[in-house]
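# nightly structure sweep
# worker-07 picked up a monomer target from the shared queue
# config: single-sequence mode, recycle default, output format = structure tokens
# input follows
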Amino acid sequence: MFLFCFLRAFGHNGGLVIRDMRTDTDTKLQQQTKTAEAVGVVVEADLAQRIEVATRRSQEFLLKAQHPDGYWIGELFVDVTLVCDVVLFMHWRGEVDPVKEARCVKHILSRQLPDGGWNIYPGGPSELNATVKAYIALKLAGFDAGEPLMQRARHTILRLGGVPRCNTYTKLFLALLGLYPWTHLPVIPSEMILLPNWFPFNIYEMSAWSRAMVVPLTIINHFKPTRQLPEEKQIHELFPYGLERAPFHLPWNRKKIFSLTNFFLVCDLVLSLLERCPWKPFRKRALKRAEEWILERIGDGSDGLGAIQPSMLYTCIALKALGYTDEHPVLKKALRDLQSLEAYHEEEDDFRVQPCFSPVWDTAITAVALAESGVPADRPELRKAARWLMDREVRIRGDWAVKNPHPEASGWAFEFNNIYYPDVDDTLKVLLALRHIEVEDEEEKQQVIERATRWVKSFQCKDGGWAAFDKDVTKKWLEDVPFADHNAILDPTCSDITARALELFGKLGTIKTERFIRRAVRYLRETQEEDGSWYGRWGVNYIYGTWQALRGLAAIGEDMNQDWILRARDWLEHCQNEDGGWGETPDSYVDKSRKGKGPSTPSQTAWALMGIMACGDLNRESVRRGFDYLCRNQNPDGSWSEPYLTGTGFPAVFYLKYDMYRNNWTLLALAEYRKLAEKQKERARAWAQSTLKLSELRSKLGQEAAV
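# output follows
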């Protein structure tokens, strides 16, 4: 029966019931098949065939989507705040493009919720910072506070606490427009950049993305370049009644007087007093150092500071504050880089802004999916992708080198050009892709793989895990710094990247007894939640963390029948929706009772299926239902539709929808099914042959005994 459990799912030639085993020489095996038929072993309605068809259509769709230069890229969809920033920035500069502003207004209005607010992910509740920015953008564009849509927005803002409850970065933009007093903002002193690297607090103890925002903000904090708006553009109505002129300093921790929160608030109070002092002996030097630091990172090889929208925007403001004119080549490039993130989609009549571009990440995932799904390793499209990726290996020692003494530069960034900020996760995925593809110069490729693998290994942190951009940027006390309320001042280790590192090392042949592998597995065991799941830092959320953990453990050769591993598989199965798919919303980042809950999406269904399949059993009902969901929901052109976002920027603050996720992860899940199915068929054939040989041997021995 074991044999037929395998063959019934994977042995088919267009029929629904196995009639024979298609073996020409083995009549005994044919007889066993007929016997199995007699006891009701029936092939699952053509699921295997449907997976084959879905795989082929998906391959064709993705191959057609490749850019002529060899890469793949999908749009990154985000909330309205980035479009609002465009309006606010135009008014701060005093140069408003009426056509662009009208397009921004249309985008903002199209996303207003019934309660008058704006959310930060589809299906989510109104969020204060997004709603405040949208309200101000509309008011700057000419909307009156008395209009019904503005009244609804104002009511929601006040219900959520008003402007005083906004985070520091929203308040800072308001201060630039004269809508919030600078004295009520945390001080970000320019002298911070002069602190040595050995000092407990310095810019390299912050995450790469925070560092890229904070350095320009130290310049902005000094100059406070404010655009005074006319009275009709003021927002007194967004402050709780009677308190618009009240002091809105950050709240003290009254329950615990001697807390880090209160310590940093005292420090901020002292810094505020020093800011008023005319004598600042190190300020000029600090401003010069900050300017040089920025200029070094926005030149050749960079598409903007950090190649992400917030730091690029702050860079433009900082350069203007330093006196750079719009005609200066440095500022012209900075503005051009910033505006490259904007796009008007004429067919949809929608103006959108991306937080960055994702060609390396999208290309690596898509190349892996295509290669593992059966596209030949030497196919021109894959070879072109490999060449494009290899040409983008970073060969300079960027910011990461401050915390990581590894002497050899390597790695890949997320974006087109961002040489100071390669990251571990992109590098892992690129290496997983390159190992599948045959290139013209295999020796060069092998050198790249070996160099980048050493680079990745050097980033393992003290706790055994891997983080995104830096090594050991994990000082928890920094989360109490007053300007750290964007929930991402650190770059902590996380289960998803650590597990992807295990996946890479396992597929490269590293044995699991290596010390650094044992440390990584221990890290995963220590970070697993009681219900068996893992937190997902860079994807939504526990489904993302759990599938990647299981995939990494399987790749490194861990016994997937251990209780702690099966608990993770069972958790995934427990989360399956009635329609056969899986889904989870960003709600789970703030409410753990929402773990694994949400409308089904193709990408999260693919993740969950790969997690379950990592445990080795394709015949589970959850797997059948999951692939039925994917096949049933594939579009005629080979793509899938996904209205929800499944990517994470800053948990509880900023999320993204990767447009490629609905297609490339899904193809990878289909590929994984086909690959594992073929392995099971091979094992079944081997078992059948050994059984028949044993039967023949027994028959022969019986005949000899009879003689």
